[in-house]
Amino acid sequence: MARYESKRVLVDYFKKNLTKGYTEDSLKWALVSQGYSKIEVTQALEQANKELAAAAPIVKEKPKIKYVIMDEHDNPIRINFSLWRRIKSWFRN
Q1: pLDDT computed for residue 10 by the predictor
Q2: What SS3 state is found at 76?
Q3: Cβ atoms of 27 and 17 closer than 8 Å
């Protein structure tokens, strides 16, 4: 039971400090230098990353922006270019 609590403390430590902006490497080596095992620290870091990812908001698609030209009566204006006119526009200077 004490080992689970120790791992929980490490996971909470990682979560708190990662959200503050510290890098994973700096946090790992700080804990290793304090006497924690590399395996225990790595497992706690993986668990913290999983928990942070699960709590992250779901990113929705960006909206598509559509431009419409309107006349003075707020009616959309549709501009039709013929095929010949489009081809001619490719060769203009």
Answers
A1: 94
A2: strand
A3: yes
Residue 87 resides in a domain? no
12: containing domain = 2-55
Give the residue from 1, 25, 14 showing the smallest Cα distance to 52: 14
Distance of CA 64 to the CA centre of its chain: 19
More confident of the two residues 82 and 22: 22
User: 28-50, pLDDT tens digit by residue?
Assistant: 999 999 999 999 999 999 999 99
Residue 42 covered by a domain: yes
> What is 34-67 written as a DSSP string?
TT--HHHHHHHHHHHHHHHHHHSPPPPPPPPP--
Identify whether the C-beta of residue 41 lies closer than 8 Å to the C-beta of residue 28: yes
Tokens of 47: 């668990």
Question: What CA–CA distance (Å, rounded) separates 1 from 24?
Answer: 26
The total domain count for the chain is 1
